[in-house]
Amino acid sequence: MSDEPQLIGGGPAGTGGRPGAGDGDHDTPHRADGLPAGKPAKGRKNRPQRTGWRRLLPTWRMVLGGLLLIVLLVAGGLVTGYLLVDIPPANKAAIAQSNVFLYSDGSQLAREGKVNRESVQLSQVPKRTQHAVLAAEDRDFYSESAINPEAMVRAAWNTVTGKGKQSGSTITQQYVKNYYLDQEQTVTRKVKEFFIAIKLDREVSKDKILEGYLNTSYFGRNAYGIQAAAQAYYGKDIGELDTAQSAYLATLLNAPSAYDIVAHPQNKGRAVARWNYVLDGMVKKGWLDRAERQKMTFPTPSDAKVASGMSGQRGYLVEAVEDYLTSNGIIDEQTLARGGYRITTTIDQKKQDAFTEAVRDRLMSKLSPDRKVDTYVRAGGASIDPKTGKVVALYGGIDYTKQFVNNATRRDYQVGSTFKPFVFTSAVRYGSTTQDGQTITADTLYNGDNKREVVGSGGPTGYAPANEDDVDYGDIDVTTATDNSVNSVYAQMAEDVGPARVKETAIDLGVPKNTPDLHASPSIALGPATASVLDMTEAYATLANHGKHGNYSLVAKVTKDGAQIKLPDREERQAVPRGAADATTSILQSVVDGGTGTAAQAAERPAAGKTGTAEEDKAAWFAGYTPDLATVVAVMGQDSNTGVQKSLYGATGLERINGGGYPAEIWAQYTAGALDGRPPADFDLRLEDGADSPDDSQNNPQPPDSPPTVPTTPPTDAPQDPSPPTTPTDNPPDLPTSDPTADPPTDLPTGGPSTEPGPGDPDGDPGDPGGDPGGPGGPVNG
């Protein structure tokens, strides 16, 4: 063997190697194709090595492979799910169970629950009604598949981005949820719904699915199915409904209880908007002639037929509790309606009975069938333990079977001057000053002249509210202005503080931010906002709790089949500084001790409160609290037949009804009864400089040249002119009373006609001369 190195593909030089190969080639290794190692073959290039951060990125082959794997897994999952999930038998929704409602001590309050259902064939449902439902819930039902991915993605996006919780379900999916499954918001339930809907769509006709949907959907008023709904809302069989009525029933599918405008008249605007949406959808799909649609008017439903077991206060309490559970997302409406829940409320039976008795004794016993205005009288009340936030009593009306609307929770009456304390709280909270730089305290002087124009930082605002009975007070301090509910002072104070800050403070105290007519303008001080009695009680409970706020609670415990349902935790926070809340309590004690709320002294406990009267005497309020209990009472006027708000001038034989009269008297009797056996407690106030205690301020004399506190005009037993008196007297007022023979209470509605209507007040209502730029218009009396 030669000792020379061998080359791939050849032997030693001269014995098979490349002819003429030099010595330099002997050291170069070659590949099998004869080319030197490391040299690319012809037509091929070396791939550059991935270096640095590029080494971390997947290649396109990896990405493509991953996507294919995902597609295979999803497809396999869909096929597996479709094969494994069968169409189950109908759920137990049709088997009615009762919901049991208990007082806080465990005794039974009410039992509710038999499902009102009457199934019908699709052929019995007029096409106009079918089309209305489709226009409301699924306009492409007959042409689309059982699942609409685009709608599901859109609904999820709208929910995530804060545009409201929405459903992307088709009618088929909704039917599956109603008939085969339950209402639980779980992934497992949604997966089952997905596959059952697909399978059902392949095996059952669209007509049968629509028929099932119409018979299983919940419409409110305990009515399941379109036939039961037609009877519940219009007292008709389904075949007798016209198009407008059909569209209203279709509207209810979106939010059954919320769109029942008899139970919640404040929601009529939303219900009408949804009703218009349904009709416009029918026109768009060619199911309704445009000219016919233009002629339609909203078909107000009839009053609900209430079971006798819901008589008295029971129905109001059950309705309020159910609204609390559904609005807080604890149980959805359809699931709750199916029954089986045992619900322990926060309602104290002793306090509830005391409230009912107080309203009967102080107000209802004074009504006469011979006075038409007495038929308009309504009352509402709520009471909260400020330390716990528990609603311990709720007065909704004379009887749930006679007056269906809950006067404690409705949001359609002006709160009047019960809003003024929020202005002062805001002033102290922000350390606000007057236009001349004086810090606003209980002792700060304001000009209280009637129709004095509000002045802002840029000069006169054009807003000049009238005082009650057009009284000129001259220069008075804030405590006296609060005692007498002086509109001109508080409108100016709202401007000094900043209306936006006043609104923010009210919301922080507990007034819902979506309250109608809660506008940031100087008129906010006079209370054009239409918060509910319960809303105002929550806000006053925050003041009573030294500025600490926690949402109210109506439910202490919920169980079903022995399992306890989780309730939301009560989160308490310092909504406003304690000094601001306590300063407000101090001046509100003065209102009870010597102002318009002296009737509340009958509770025989240290108390703070504020009277209020709505525009045209349509509502009168007293909002007050002791250290142990915050309670608000309102007396309202409403025509039972038309639902229109009515003035209370002349009710019970008095010239006018105001917050210092019946509402304060009811408050006092209820508070005394509710706290019977508990020793009176004093307010523990921490006052800042300039905030006097009530003992120092309650007898604060007026300037020598100022007029008397609030003049009155003696009433007579004869029918009264509906317009309020405008001529003050020189005599100081007596205590507010409900006795027709006594002098009228001191919290009187605004007098003096406006010379020109203000914005939003085309009739030029008395008390809003010149209007309020930027405000809702319409005065609110003190």
Cα-atom radius of gyration: 36 Å
User: Number of helix segments?
Assistant: 21
The description of the largest β-sheet is:
5 strands, mixed
Mean pLDDT: 80
Task: Assess the beta-strand content as a share of residues.
Answer: 5-15%
Pick out the low-confidence regions: 1-26, 162-167, 693-780
Strands side by side in the biggest sheet: 2-1-5-13-14
What percentage of residues falls in helices of 4 or more residues?
Answer: 25-40%
- The beta-strand count equals 18
Basic shape: globular
- How many angstroms separate the termini? 126 Å
Structural class by SSE content? alpha+beta
Q: Can you describe this structure?
A:
With 782 residues, the protein is an alpha+beta fold. It is built from 21 helices and 18 strands. The strands form 6 sheets. A 5-stranded mixed sheet has the order 2-1-5-13-14. A hairpin with a 4-residue loop joins β17 and β18 (630-637). α8 packs across α9. The longest helix is centred in the N-terminal third of the chain and has 25 residues, at 60-84. The radius of gyration is 36 Å and the shape is globular. It comes from Streptomyces demainii. Residues 23-33, 679-689 have a biased composition (Basic and acidic residues). InterPro entries: Beta-lactam/transpept-like (IPR012338), Glyco_trans_51 (IPR001264), Glycosyltr_51/Transpeptidase (IPR050396), Lysozyme-like_dom_sf (IPR023346), PBP_transglycosylase (IPR036950), PCN-bd_Tpept (IPR001460). It holds the Pfam family Transgly. Residues 384-641 form the Penicillin-binding protein transpeptidase domain.
